[in-house]
Prior knowledge:
The complex is a heterodimer. By secondary structure, chain A is mainly α. Chain A is 59% helix and 7% strand. A three-stranded antiparallel sheet of chain A has the order 1-3-2. In chain A, a hairpin with a 2-residue loop joins strand 2 (80-85) and strand 3 (88-92). In chain A, helix 4 packs across helix 5 (64-77) and helix 7 (111-132) runs antiparallel to helix 9 (153-178). Chain B is an alpha+beta fold. Chain B has two helices and seven strands; from the N terminus they run αβββββββα. Chain B has helices at 23-33, 130-150, and strands spanning 39-45, 52-57, 66-75, 81-89, 93-100, 109-112, 122-123. Chain B has a seven-stranded antiparallel sheet with strand order 1-2-3-4-5-6-7, with helices on one face. Chain B starts with 22 loop residues before the first helix and ends with a helix. The interface between A and B is large, with 66 and 70 residues. Chain B: Residues 1-25, 99-123 are annotated as: Disordered. Chain A: This is Sugar-specific transcriptional regulator TrmB. Chain A: InterPro entries: DUF7342, WH_DNA-bd_sf. Chain A: Residues 1-22 are annotated as: Disordered.
Amino acid sequence: xxxxxxxxxxxxxxxxxxxxxxxxxxxxxxxxxxxxxxxxxxxxxxxxxxxxxxxxxxxxxxxxxxxxxxxxxxxxxxxxxxxxxxxxxxxxxxxxxxxxxxxxxxxxxxxxxxxxxxxxxxxxxxxxxxxxxxxxxxxxxxxxxxxxxxxxxxxxxxxxxxxxxxxxxxxxxxxxxxxxxxxxxxxxxxx
Amino acid sequence: xxxxxxxxxxxxxxxxxxxxxxxxxxxxxxxxxxxxxxxxxxxxxxxxxxxxxxxxxxxxxxxxxxxxxxxxxxxxxxxxxxxxxxxxxxxxxxxxxxxxxxxxxxxxxxxxxxxxxxxxxxxxxxxxxxxxxxxxxxxxxxxxxxxxxxx
Lengths: 191, 151
């Protein structure tokens, strides 16, 4: 990245008291989190394909004993599912992550708020459907569409990604509202 | 949208091109960066399933002519990302972008260097691990921040 232009740099007065860059937490530590648990969570959340205990240990940068313990714990919590027994392999459990997000929605918002959010999200998705003249982003071939419309691939990619994001959010909101009838009494009331 | 494609499963064979925002990764990024002394605030909007995370740098790391500085983080379920660093100055701005996504002007991995992050950018190779990508970006920003004081 370019260095700042000379006229933007600190003047003599400011330089007398520069910021304490050396006291900051090193960036590698910031992005990795503070605990062993964060290392294992990062490893299993990336496990789209089944991973052995040894592979999870390597990915997390810790030993296999710790990996086995964390995997058993994550399995009990539903974060991972065991795919095979011998050798034991695990993969992340996307339905748990979705369930947790739906629960968060139900705890945080009233039904009225969820309905409003859903309306906004559906409108957004419909706008994209109209712009692309398609029922689903799966129908859009990004490079072809860009060349047909005289737009950049990057622009079309950004819109398709936003459309997919909007549909995913719509799905979460629909699940949160549908879960209403499935009995978990006394959670929420209108504000 | 129930009963068909699973929007949470990145290995879903029915998924076409592009991918939705990776809400779980964005949450993790917001959690890790929030509270670090580099940032005055770390915001996810909308909070329940963010499209991106906006990290506003503490202005104590910049001299007077810099009025605000932020890093916007967008990450997608197929591993694509776009990280945008932006500074506002008294009379100008500075932008720099690190990208991994389809493009007709560059390779999948590329950067749009400052001052105005022009298109096309420069082809590059970003690390495989998302944490290494983020660390290297934060590191580059810090190098620029230091240069304000030593220049």
